[in-house]
Design the sequence.
C-alpha cells in the first residue's frame, strides 16, 4: 500500500489566492513526522514545513500552513496569497519511528503535485 | 559550512559503463541516504547509512552499491549502467535524533 498519496497531479491557482495541496499517509507507527518540500524547475529540494505526530497544533511557516488531521491521516499543505514564484512541484513525505532508530532515517515521498500560479 | 555537496551535476554514460556519484556533508550528520527521482514516482530510497561502516538497502537498491568509510562521505556506485538508471539522484543527510533533512542539489544522469 502507498504510504504517502498525493492525488492531485496538477493544480492551478490565481495569483494572490489560497491553494490546498492534498496529502494522505498510511502508518501504524504512533511516532512519525510529515514534511512538505518544494522543487522548482531548477531542481533543488526546498524544505517548507514539518509536522510531528505528537504536535498539538498545526504547523505554520509564513505563508505555508499544514492542515493536520490525524484521525483522517491527512496532512494538506495550504499556501496563502499565492505568488508566481510558488509555481513548482510539491512533495509530501513521511519519516516514521523514534529518533535514533535505523528506520527513522527513511523518508517516503508521494508522487508530487505540480502547482501553476496564474497572474 | 557547505551542507551536502553532490558531484557531478550532470553525467552521460554509455550502457555497461560504471561510475561513482559523490556525496559529502560537513555537518557531522550520522544519517546519509541516496534517492532517485523519476517522473510521476516522487523520490525513492536507494540505499542509506546510519553511520560509518553501516549501510542498508532502500526501496530500489538493485544495480547500485554504497559504502560509508567516513562520516562525511557516502558515494553511490553504478556497477554496469543501464538505461533504466537514467534519473535524477539526490543525496540527503540528517542527524539520527532530529527530524530535519538536508538535500544535495542533485545529479542528473543519462544512460544511453
Sequence:
Amino acid at each position: 500500500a502507498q504510504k504517502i498519496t498525493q492525488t492531485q497531479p496538477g493544480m492551478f491557482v490565481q495569483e494572490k489566492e489560497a491553494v490546498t495541496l492534498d496529502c494522505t499517509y498510511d502508518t501504524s507507527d504512533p511516532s512519525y513526522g510529515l514534511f512538505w518540500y518544494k522543487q522548482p524547475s531548477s531542481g533543488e529540494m526546498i524544505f517548507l514545513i514539518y509536522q510531528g505526530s505528537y504536535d498539538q497544533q498545526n504547523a505554520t511557516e509564513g505563508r505555508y500552513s499544514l492542515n493536520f488531521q490525524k484521525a483522517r491521516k491527512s496532512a494538506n499543505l495550504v499556501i496563502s496569497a499565492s505568488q508566481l514564484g510558488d509555481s513548482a512541484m510539491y512533495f509530501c513525505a513521511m519519516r516514521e519511528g523514534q529518533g535514533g532508530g535505523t528506520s527513522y532515517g527513511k523518508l517516503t515521498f508521494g508522487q508530487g503535485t505540480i502547482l501553476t500560479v496564474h497572474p | 559550512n557547505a551542507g551536502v555537496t553532490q558531484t557531478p551535476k550532470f553525467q552521460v554514460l554509455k550502457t555497461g559503463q560504471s561510475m561513482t556519484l559523490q556525496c559529502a556533508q560537513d555537518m557531522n550528520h550520522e544519517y546519509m541516504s541516496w534517492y532517485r527521482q523519476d517522473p510521476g514516482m516522487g523520490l525513492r530510497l536507494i540505499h542509506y547509512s546510519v553511520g560509518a561502516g553501516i549501510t542498508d538497502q532502500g526501496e530500489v537498491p538493485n544495480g547500485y552499491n554504497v559504502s560509508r568509510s567516513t562520516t562525511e562521505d557516502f558515494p553511490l556506485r553504478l556497477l554496469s549502467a543501464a538505461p533504466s538508471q537514467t534519473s535524477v539522484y539526490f543525496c540527503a543527510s540528517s542527524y539520527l535524533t532530529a527530524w530535519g533533512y538536508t538535500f544535495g542539489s542533485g545529479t542528473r544522469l543519462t544512460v544511453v
